[in-house]
Specification:
Elements lengths: L1 H18 L1 H7 L4 H27 L3 H28 L9 H11 L3 H29 L3 H28 L1
Helix pairs in contact: 3-4, 3-5, 3-6, 4-7, 6-7
Length: 173
C-alpha cells in the first residue's frame, strides 16, 4: 500500500511541475533569434520614424515628403506594438537606432532638396529589402509564436513601403 501511495504522490508532483505556470511561461519564452529580431525591428522603426521626419523637412519632392510621412505613421504604430509585445515578454528594446542607422541619419540630415530625395529613396529601398528578408526569416525560423505573429503582421507593411519607395523613385527620377 505504501508503494501505491508513493506512486500517487510522485505522479501528483510530476503533474504539478508539468502544468505549473512557470513551466508554461518558460516554454513560450522568446529564443535569442526572437529577441534579436525584436531589437533589430525596434531600432529599424526608430530609424524610419526619424528618417521620415527628415524627409518632411529636407525633401524637395512632394512625393518624397508624403512617403516620409507614411513611414512615420506606419512605423510609429509598429513601434508601439513592438513595445507592448516586448513588455509582455520582458525584452528590453533599444531606444535609439543602431550605430549604422544613426550614421545614415546624420548623412541624410546634411542633405537637402533633390540630393536628399535621391539618397533617401536609395536608402529606403535598400533598408526595406533587408527588413523584408529579416521578417521572412523570423516567420520561417522563429520560436515564439507571438514574435512570429508580429513579423507576419509587419511583413505586408514593409512590402508596401518597398513598393512605395520604388514608385516614388520612378515618379521623381
Amino acid at each position: 500500500m505504501r508503494s501505491l501511495k508513493a506512486v500517487a504522490i510522485t505522479a501528483s508532483v510530476i503533474a504539478a511541475a508539468t502544468l505549473s505556470p512557470g513551466t508554461a511561461l518558460a516554454a513560450s519564452s522568446p529564443s535569442q533569434q526572437d529577441i534579436t529580431w525584436m531589437k533589430t525591428s525596434a531600432a529599424g522603426d526608430l530609424f524610419e520614424i526619424q528618417g521620415g521626419k527628415l524627409a518632411q523637412t529636407h525633401a524637395h519632392s512632394a512625393a518624397v515628403k508624403q512617403f516620409g510621412a507614411r513611414l512615420v505613421s506606419d512605423h510609429t504604430k509598429s513601434s508601439r506594438d513592438m513595445k507592448k509585445l516586448a513588455a509582455q515578454l520582458k525584452v528590453t528594446l533599444p531606444t535609439t537606432p543602431n550605430s549604422k542607422q544613426r550614421a545614415e541619419l546624420a548623412r541624410l540630415s546634411s542633405l537637402h532638396g533633390a540630393e536628399f530625395d535621391r539618397q533617401y529613396r536609395k536608402t529606403e529601398i535598400s533598408d526595406h529589402k533587408m527588413d523584408i528578408s529579416d521578417a521572412k526569416k523570423q516567420i520561417s525560423t522563429g520560436s515564439n509564436q507571438q514574435v512570429i505573429n508580429e513579423a507576419r503582421k509587419d511583413l505586408p507593411v514593409l512590402q508596401a513601403h518597398l513598393k512605395l519607395a520604388e514608385q516614388t523613385q520612378s515618379k521623381v527620377g
